[in-house]
Amino acid sequence: MEPVTDTQISAAGPDPDSAAAGGACDDGLGLREQKKRQTRIAMHRAALELVAEHGFVHVTVEMIARRAGVSTRTFFNHWSTKDAAVLGIIMGESFEISESLRIQLEVSSPREAMRTVLREALTAIPSDSDLRELKKQVMAKEPRLHSISSGKLIEVQTEMVEVLAEHLEGEQAGTLAVIAVQVGFALTRSAFALSMSEGIDLITAFDEVVDLYDSGLIEA
Amino acid sequence: MEPVTDTQISAAGPDPDSAAAGGACDDGLGLREQKKRQTRIAMHRAALELVAEHGFVHVTVEMIARRAGVSTRTFFNHWSTKDAAVLGIIMGESFEISESLRIQLEVSSPREAMRTVLREALTAIPSDSDLRELKKQVMAKEPRLHSISSGKLIEVQTEMVEVLAEHLEGEQAGTLAVIAVQVGFALTRSAFALSMSEGIDLITAFDEVVDLYDSGLIEA
DNA sequence: TGCAATAGTGCAGTCAATGCAACAGTTGGC
DNA sequence: GCCAACTGTTGCATTGACTGCACTATTGCA
Predict the structure, then answer these.
(1) Domain count of chain A?
(2) Which residues from chain B sit within 8 angstroms of residue A182, using beta carbons?
């Protein structure tokens, strides 16, 4: 298994059980991919349940792994951090995202490019209702999770700053790039928090956050 | 010693050596306070030097402590995390900041209140020129440090969201509060990055960032 | 069926972070 | 100058996140 590439934000797929029940949810994936997905979801669910039960700090990776029926080593093959498992953050290669930004910058304004890329990076969450309920509970009790800084996320942030700074030119390009990216991620984080606390999917949450931000009601 | 309260962002004071040379830099503090400050700065400097030399990941807390001439236990009495020591972030009680926000909200708009509080939380950095040079180097080589999420910072963030949400009222108060605080901290983080990379003091950097943000050039 | 790829595992090890109890220098009152 | 309350420093033991490595088990494909 790839030692946890990280970067494309997405969340766990549909419930393995319901998929098994329906039987038709092959997704065109091989048996291998399906199993991988299943264990991943099992861990995510286990993490959520345990955090809901005992609180984030009292849940160990070992506990999560055991409930999900895997070894702790396997846990870290799927999730880069404990936080990531609870939040269901999976990321792809950071250079893909920064490349995507570079391309978008050719055809759109920096603002639009940033938003398009960030939005694209948020894969929809087809989460089941019970997973949503769990997430709501967890986020309500664990405000700590509102601020994501899951390892590789920082990597992406850094690369995006570089790409943007390069594109902007001018004396203050660097500073402008830093601010733009920081604000962009602030919106993304907000979307994540909203998504989990309201039980809506990430893209919807992101759009809502962006709308609110643009409305000027924010006063930030 | 207080087991590292955390929250009031500030940076290490003046060079202990230069203070010793001048002799008149008593600051009205007791011998105790002075010594405490000195060891703190020694650790901060050691951390910066080592990171500049070997890179963040290859520097252990033990190495920092040894160079600063203290035990690792003492290290953690002063800094809540390794990151904090490198960045020179010290924080006070989080409730003080949220209290401050609550008060400011009585007399100013949310936007002004947020900014005032965040700005106040940034104690000036009277860093020596050589420390600045070190910081520049470190920040250039360690982009990881651009995204601060030093433990208790999250705590402050959370409390601010609560206070703000309570004050805003309305259906979307919660979401608005989350976004406002996230953006506020995004600006603060940007200020921190700018301060270190340009070798200017935090307040100046913060004002500059806010001005740039308000100018609309950002395109976030 | 057999080979290549890849998911899962066990193990040993590193290191950040914390609690506790003992110790030492500082301060203030007398 | 001396004692008592503080408070900073330290060593020790411990927990738990995370990693590298070598190895086994499955799966996909020819």
Answers:
(1) 1
(2) 186-187, 189-190
**For residue B173, how many other CB atoms are within 10 A of its CB?**
14
Greatest Cα pair distance in chain B: 60
Integer Cα distance of A173 and A119 in angstroms:
23
DSSP A126: -
| pLDDT > 70? residue A15 | no
Write the CATH number for B184: 1.10.357
Q: Note the pLDDT of residue B4.
A: 57
Instruction: Assess if residue A183 is contained within a domain.
Output: yes
Which segments of A74-211 are extended strands (E)?
none
Between chains, do B157 and A178 touch, taking CB under 8 Å as contact? no
Q: Across the interface, do A209 and B172 touch by the CB < 8 Å criterion?
A: no
Task: Indicate if the pLDDT at residue B12 is higher than 50.
Answer: no
Helices (H), chain A: 16-22, 31-54, 61-68, 72-78, 82-87, 94-107, 110-121, 129-141, 152-168, 173-198, 202-215
Residues at the strand D interface (Cβ < 7 Å): A 3-4, 30-32, 35, 59-62, 72-73, 76, 80-83; B 1-2, 32, 35-36, 39, 69-71, 73-74, 77-78
Whether residue B11 lies inside any domain: the answer is no
Confidence of residue A2 (pLDDT cuts 50, 70, 90): low
Distance CA A19, CA A142 (A): 30
How large is the C-alpha radius of gyration of chain A? 18
Which residue's structure tokens are 């946890």?
A4
Domain that holds residue A201: 16-215
Q: Tens of pLDDT along B33-85?
A: 788 888 999 999 999 999 999 999 999 999 999 999 999 999 999 999 999 89
CA distance A35 to A89: 18
DSSP B143: G
φ/ψ (deg, to 5) at A9: -75, 125
Is residue B87 one of the residues assigned to a domain? yes
Residue A5 lies in a domain: no
Interface A-B: count of C-beta contacts within 8 A: 118
* pLDDT, tens digit, 9 for 90 and up, residues B117-157: 988 887 645 567 778 888 888 888 887 777 766 666 777 88
Work out the average pLDDT over A106-131: 81
